[in-house]
Design brief:
single chain; alpha+beta; Immunoglobulin-like; 3 domains; 5-stranded antiparallel sheet; 10 helices; 19 strands; disordered N terminus; FliD
């Protein structure tokens, strides 16, 4: 933005005492007053945008508490501690008890070769040509892993490196046994029988004699397995677990498809096969914690809307009959905003509603006051009685849940309030924009227009002040010439009279 220089000290020298520099500074100040209404509007728009941003943020925070009251707060469960397994529950789980027996853990297949004096000796058939051989590792019905090796790539170390380079579902390592010899160890990354490895070598009979395994590896007492080149370190086994009298077989020790909303992590076989009791009980502390947060966030929102809409009368003392009082700077930026009034009215009306179970003649709880949450009729602020809330939770948490979540054809408080909050603040989960965003977008557009108008007006002011400057400079020049002529005439007249 161009501005006129305010240095006028060199002006007025030839005007016979007329302070043109001071006059120009005053004219510039007067011209700058043309910006005042635009700057006031600019400040107003900025304050409104900021205020709506704060309100929207507080509504989003409140929205999180309301969503918890729609389900999570009443579905949070305390899970028993068990020995042979660990259980975790989501909000999809239900309070219940289950008999669980871990009969067998899922294990990953592991094989090892016979021992060799060196891990760098070539074990394959050596030829005079660049011959290749292929190692194939098959696991269940999955895609086979194929490793191609040349004559000088068949040592234990090189085979392990080539297998690991595939980054498949089998890992390889070279280890030393108790006799100090080197062995290739193959480990399945998958537990269960689907991870059992079948190893075959094509194009190299010597290497095949070291690796070929199709019966799970040599095991003492298993005649079929004696034809395998490698020995079994760990058998591939599925997990077996009995839940409430039904036996289940799974490939993994982490099982989430037996009890709805519950994941069982198997740790060990159940001692003496005596079932352990898994108990899922409602964590009532989550209800209280969520309601405390709800009250806190609701009050924070109401405090901000009150501050934003606050009215403070303008000071009129000292004003003349033609003067107009301006808005007090202590008033809220959204004072008189119709949308804010409507929003606050909807929110307060919603939380003051009754949400009892219409299908029951013995509905215990239907309003916040029943839970010890009272609402000030003037400020809208909530006050929580923890003693009354504790009594209500202890007496009937299910009824409280229905009050917030809804039951039958009756809408719950959380559902109703959630709709109001989404209407105004939107919802990031559903990618919904609210009315507030539309309002702030409009304010930003108007602010942009005001900024453009300020720039244009400032350019006009700068041009006008420059014109004043030129006029005063011309006056200076003319007055200097006239003063010079006056001096010359005076001198001439003096010489003529002497």
């Amino acid at each position: 933005m161009a501005t006129v220089s305010t240095s006028f000290s060199a002006m007025g020298i030839g005007t016979g005492g007329i302070d043109t520099a001071s006059m120009l500074a005053q004219l510039q100040s007067a011209e700058q007053l043309r910006l005042t209404p635009y700057q006031s509007m600019q400040t107003s728009y900025k304050n409104k945008i900021s205020s709506w941003g704060t309100i929207s943020s507080l509504m989003t925070t409140l929205q999180s508490s309301v969503k918890k009251l729609s389900g999570e707060a009443f579905n949070t469960l305390t899970v028993s501690k068990n020995t042979s397994f660990t259980a975790t529950a989501t909000d999809k789980a239900s309070a219940d008890a289950h008999s669980v027996t871990v009969e067998q853990l899922a294990t990953a297949h592991k094989l090892r070769t016979q021992g060799f004096d060196s891990a760098d000796t070539q074990l394959g058939t050596q030829t005079s040509k660049e011959a290749t051989r292929t190692i194939t590792i098959q696991q269940g019905d999955g895609k086979p892993m194929t490793i191609e090796l040349k004559d000088d790539q068949t040592s234990l170390n090189q085979i392990a490196k080539a297998i690991n380079k595939q980054d498949g579902s089998v890992s390889a390592s070279v280890q030393r046994n108790g006799d100090g010899q080197y062995q290739l160890m193959l480990s399945s990354k998958k537990t269960g029988t689907d991870g059992e490895m079948v190893v075959s070598v094509d194009g190299d009979s010597d290497l095949a004699a070291v690796l070929n395994t199709s019966h799970g590896g040599k095991v003492d007492g298993n005649a079929d397995s004696q034809t395998d080149a490698m020995s079994q370190v760990t058998a591939a086994k599925d997990a077996k677990v009995n839940v409430d009298g039904t036996e289940y077989t799974r490939a993994s020790n982490n099982i989430n498809d037996i009890i709805n909303g519950v994941t069982l992590s198997l740790n060990s076989v159940t001692k003496d096969k005596e079932p352990e009791q898994l108990t899922l009980t409602v964590d009532t502390s989550a209800i209280k914690t969520t309601l405390q947060d709800f009250v806190k966030q609701y009050n924070a929102l109401l405090s901000e809307t009150t501050a934003s809409s606050k009215y403070v009368a303008a000071v009129t003392s000292g004003l003349g009959t033609t003067d107009v009082a301006t808005k007090s700077s202590q008033s809220g930026p959204l004072m008189g905003d119709a949308m804010l009034r409507s929003m606050v009215s909807e929110i307060r009306s919603t939380v003051n509603g009754w949400y009892g179970d219409s299908s029951s003649n013995e509905s215990t709880y239907g309003a916040l006051a029943d839970l010890g949450i009272t609402i000030d009729s003037q400020t809208g602020q909530m006050t929580l009685s923890e003693t009354k809330l504790d009594d209500a939770i202890a007496a009937d948490p299910d009824s409280i849940g229905k009050m917030f979540k809804g039951s039958g054809e009756t809408e719950g408080l959380a559902t109703a309030l959630g709709s109001v909050l989404t209407k105004y603040a939107g919802d990031t989960e559903s990618k919904t924009d609210g009315i507030i965003k539309t309002a702030t977008d409009n304010l930003n557009s108007q602010l942009k227009n005001i900024n453009t108008q300020i720039d244009k007006t400032q350019q006009l002011i700068d041009s006008q002040v420059n014109r004043y400057r030129v006029q005063f400079q011309n006056l200076d020049s003319i007055m200097s010439k006239l003063n010079g002529m006056s001096s010359s005439i005076t001198a001439l007249m003096s010489s003529m009279s002497s």
